[in-house]
């Protein structure tokens, strides 16, 4: 460990579920998010930074005066330091309780003053299209090529794995199951077998996704469990002064659930290992056979169970008995005894952190090809709300704020001054190496599914787009609602690692004094952001859809170079090769009122003159696509100059008995620069009484065959 490590602080935070409210025609999307937050307890965001250490050109010339590192920095914990840090924070917590004369004081997101922001051309690639060199196929739509993300449908071209994400609502209830299909010579999927995942007997488990490490012959299903139950704050025979005061005998003891399965050829998958980690799942990625987990643990401490006016002697007795092991997360393997996930000296602290939170964020790497599932972990004091990964580095983000609902409204309100801390960790052969931290003004937005796309790493520099307003649009209807708050301005920041002091230094922002124009016209809010090589693409919306092209080839002087206006807006932008972007979002009328699902092809080969080549509108204002529930809801398959696109779309009309559903098809011809809609597959009317989770609709393309997974069953179609 480097004792000089001085990155930036990570602060605990709270995201109000109320802020996720959707308009009535998007109610299922809001429900899906509530379930994710309730059972998994994670909100993922992402941050990016340089892939290689050493600064990548960010080291100043010897004659320059080095700017100071961020005001709040991380440092490696020495023996006893973590415990001393925690005791000091607990004393600060108690002072706040006594000041408020209440047990119910929020210790989330209180932080020091924000840190003010310091004043080679490539061709866009199919970065989000997954393909196999062995078997021509698509795969999970990911942000970075080679960095896999968990999902409910996985394949190596020969095997197809599905995850039915049933919840174990009570002991003996329905549990999740993984099914393995083997493709026959004619392409038909033959069920090799299915395995029910063994959830913990006392808990409700929600499995959120899985990975396939084909070369290791293993699959991994992961998720979380709130694990409600009584907490024994005073184990053993030690007298417990809190017994007479403890107000909460039953609390949540969340666990990250990770099941490792073996894949024995033509048989059902075999559950080999069960790992349970204290805390909530922030996010995960898979590179090769290395699984990267980010978890967050809030320790349950006896001193916190005391009411604010408990006798001082009782409080001091509990503080005296506090140990570092009481603070750190534990792991159990195959039901064995719990052991420490990390040691005290594996952690970082932030001495200048003014937050009262004691959340522990842990980064764990697991070698799925190892018989023993060899793992390494590092942690820091602080919460994480976003995760971004390049092929060589992991970035975690924490915003310094407490969000609150506005008066008489479910809208989210942020403090006037908001900033986001970004921490970079390099991953080398399974080791987690802290590289540095930085800070940017603003926050990462209201949509947890989109936060990772606010970041990108290119040539060792991190580009991040943040929102800097106290309020903004949290629902599609805000664009036409006179009572809605003003949209939030946006800022682009470029950060560069400076290895000398473990900092991520700001090298440029946009807007700036030389380029003061806003990102988007006044009265518009950013909806989609995508970085591709040395270009950035930003979509804003009020009544029309301006697409802005950013030239980032000079990272110290980013600038907007092109603009296109078209009806509606895009929530997501996907590179389609040869200077083309596929946009998926909503159409809108001349008043800005949202109508159907819009799929459009943008030509950005000439960044100064972007054009819209074609667009299609699906259904009316009641229509939704699976992308509105999950960023993995679209399937793109590149074959030469052609990109085949599959997008599940449903029109919700609750006045009728059914809901028309269709698996929409499109073809992009990058050579002819065209977008063509094909006849849909799997068109039907679904029975609302049987439920419909658009967030689980997935497709897979292998050659000319299409496999459609609706959350429970797998079907085969021809393209």
Q: Could you characterize the architecture of this molecule?
A:
The chain is mainly beta and 719 residues long. It is 7% helix and 41% strand. The strands form eleven sheets. It has a six-stranded mixed β-sheet with strand order 1-16-18-17-13-12, with helices on one face. A hairpin with a 7-residue loop joins strand 31 (544-551) and strand 32. It is globular. The relative contact order is 0.15. Mean pLDDT is 78; it is low at 1-65, 108-133, 235-239 and 241-249.
Notable features of this structure?
single chain, mainly beta, 5 helices, six-stranded antiparallel β-sheet, 719 residues
Layout of helices and strands:
Blueprint: H1 27-40, E1 75-76, H2 81-100, E2 153-155, E3 159-164, E4 177-183, E5 189-196, E6 206-213, E7 218-225, E8 228-230, E9 250-252, E10 255-262, E11 270-278, E12 280-287, E13 290-297, H3 302-305, H4 312-321, H5 324-327, E14 330-333, E15 339-340, E16 347-349, E17 360-367, E18 375-381, E19 386-389, E20 393-399, E21 404-405, E22 412-413, E23 419-428, E24 431-441, E25 455-458, E26 461-467, E27 490-498, E28 503-510, E29 525-532, E30 535-541, E31 544-551, E32 559-567, E33 569-577, E34 580-588, E35 594-603, E36 611-618, E37 623-625, E38 635-639, E39 642-651, E40 659-669, E41 674-686, E42 698-702, E43 705-709, E44 714-718
